[in-house]
Amino acid sequence: MTNSVPKFQPVFTGELSDYVTGLAWSSRGLLAACSAAGEVGIADGEVLKLIKQADGYSLSQVLFSTDGQFLAAAGQTGDVFIWQLDSQATATLITTLHNPGVWIDHLAWHPTRAELAIGLKHYVQVWDVVAQAVITTLDFAASSILGLDWHPAGDYLAVGGYQGIRVWTAADWDEEPQHLELMSACVGLAWAGNGEFMAAANIDRTLSVWQWGDISPWEMRGFPGKVKQLVWSDLASSSGAPLLASSCAEGIVVWERDQDIGWASRILDLHQQAVITVVFQPNSLLLASAGSEGWLCLWDQAQEPIQILEGVKVGFSTLAWSRDGSLVAAGGQVGEVLVWQNVENISINN
What we know:
Elements: E1 8-15, E2 20-25, E3 31-35, E4 40-43, E5 48-52, E6 59-64, E7 70-75, E8 80-85, E9 91-97, E10 107-109, E11 115-120, E12 123-128, E13 133-139, E14 147-150, E15 156-169, E16 178-191, E17 197-202, E18 207-211, E19 218-220, E20 229-236, E21 242-248, E22 251-258, E23 262-268, E24 275-280, E25 287-291, E26 296-300, E27 304-309, E28 316-321, E29 327-332, E30 336-342
Antiparallel strand pairs: 1-30, 2-3, 3-4, 4-5, 6-7, 7-8, 8-9, 10-11, 11-12, 12-13, 14-15, 15-16, 16-17, 17-18, 18-19, 20-21, 21-22, 22-23, 24-25, 25-26, 26-27, 28-29, 29-30
């Protein structure tokens, strides 16, 4: 533990031709970015090189496999593009999965294997990248897929939508999934890094948290609008559980486990316009939030603002931490890709 406060300074600027829709860091320190124009680029610290040119069709997400060997992207056309990266970070397109008429918003890599979960309307398909084969197709049935996340150990795959979440067991895909029921629809979900808790953002302006093994959730209410994003800290707070941050409109609510009331909340109120995304620094309680007014705010212990980063012309669209937490990248609404480095090279918590 240290009281040193990190200080971030800009170290890289790149540019895509349109709204940056996704960012992802690899375990090798490479940054991938995708855009609403259909571009995919990889930054090696010096230049942003396009591996897919703009075609006018938006991409929703770009995502590295855990080992950094593969990169996947998908979006408006229903095509899933998968590249393999060599030791020189050269990306080779090895697979394009065609799903006409499907806008793909949800991709998730298995935590330890080269298996990619893909949300396809009311189905989820799990694709084995090495074998080039479908492992399973899961029917959510109740609605389109609105949330998708692997358990951190890779034992389960959680899928959210209308009337709740279904959790399939990876060891036996044919086994009946566990159903975590909701009165409305889950529009986003996230496992805690320790696998003990799962959170769901719901269309009725509520947030639900389950302790794994208990089908009765805690319900958080009082949001002024739909909860846009959920993110867990890797580290536990003094309560012994990780923190949960949620964004809604211009505000951020941080939830901390409380043995008496379930979960206690605190509001982080600084952004002047909508909060686009919130992300915890890996292995830390330092929280970053990006707003459409063009502020990237860093919050000490997810409580007090310690630095505001700027540099986009209009507003931020997305952000991502490097795996070691020394770099934070952000995308802009007109195509900027910016990276800041912790010049102290010290995390606020370790």
